[in-house]
């Protein structure tokens, strides 16, 4: 009957071995998914948040630069000198907006970004009207349009401030998501270690139990 005991213990050991392999496979599969998710989160933090925050900073700087240039225009001569500078800044702003639009926008971000583009387009029209009025020496028109233009700057800067707040909020959400994934991975690793130790102990118990249940060889009575 020795072979029967051996076969029974081998079956049990094979079962627990298969269970170990299954647990390791599932753990590796989950780890792969966690790594993929973390990689996506970190990429989004850089591509859609840090880079965008840089765009917002640049846009804010260009708007303030235009505001200073235009506020210094009081006659046809200064308006003529300001026109190429304003055109250059507007071209740069258009390129930044194009790059910004290629990033992943949240619903709220898309709303404020659309408002920003609308306000900037209106601002460009007002800028053109102010410069034209100064070139034609229409003082009354330039003064009224200048006041409207200042409101246009304020509206655009307000949109930039809201977009910047969204970057901070979304960055925090991505950080929290990454922390949850890391915590889950740590918990799974601990669980895997406990399971492997428990299964290892069970296998050892089965091995020793198989040895103790095997029939002992009969001793010859004449041998002492």
Uncertain ranges? 1-5
- Beta strands, count: 0
Biggest β-sheet, characterized?
none
The coarse overall form would be: rod-shaped
| Global mean pLDDT | 76
Structural class: mainly alpha
Distance from first to last alpha carbon = 27 Å
- Quote the beta fraction: under 5%
Roughly what percent helix? over 70%
The number of helical segments is 4
Report Rg.
36 Å
User: Topology as H/E string?
Assistant: HHHH
Describe this structure as you would to a colleague.
By secondary structure, the chain is mainly alpha-helical. It contains 4 helices and no strands. Helix 2 runs antiparallel to helix 3 and helix 3 runs antiparallel to helix 4. The protein is rod-shaped, with a radius of gyration of 36 Å. The chain starts with a helix and ends in an 11-residue tail after the last helix. The N terminus is likely disordered.
What characteristics describe this protein?
single chain; 224 residues; mainly alpha; disordered N terminus
